[in-house]
Amino acid sequence: xxxxxxxxxxxxxxxxxLKEQQADVRLKSLSSExxxxxxxxxxxxxxxxxxxxxxxxxxxxxxxxETITISELTHEGLLAFVDFIYxxxxxxxxxxxxxxxSIYRVAEKYKIPHLGDLCxxxxxxxxxxxxxxxxLEFAQVPYDYALSNxxxxxxxxxxxxxxxxxxxxxxxxxxxxxxxEIVKAISAKDK
Length: 191
Fold this sequence. Notes:
191 residues, mainly alpha, three-stranded mixed sheet, 3 strands, BTB/POZ_dom
């Protein structure tokens, strides 16, 4: 009979053992002097960018720990990111959800597509009339087709509320090209 405890022991056992071993790299955010201990092998296994960056160093023993600064994350976001890297990758924890936009950017930068997918899904599930404009803008660089379309759909579904908001007036001034896309999307729906 399968139990969640057995599954946790199976999935978490190797990582638990590794976490108990001495870390060989430190990750740091710009917002804090505190760092987070990690292992080059785990980072390399989860990220092609870390793999290319750290590959020559994986087998090399040194007495000083290398520090990698991840400028896009706060310390709390960094903790959530590292926790995900060491997890089974099935879901985002609550801390990661509270830093989903910055973690999404890090997933893109460090080529961790599964993490990016989970972040995108979390953002899409949280779309509403109050954040749709922000997420439409967010989806443009780098361009994320699914996120952009989901934000446009939320804007279309909430067009009266959004078009009467002060935020929309600012958005029109700051993002005229996206405003044209919104108008096209709303017009297409009304036909």
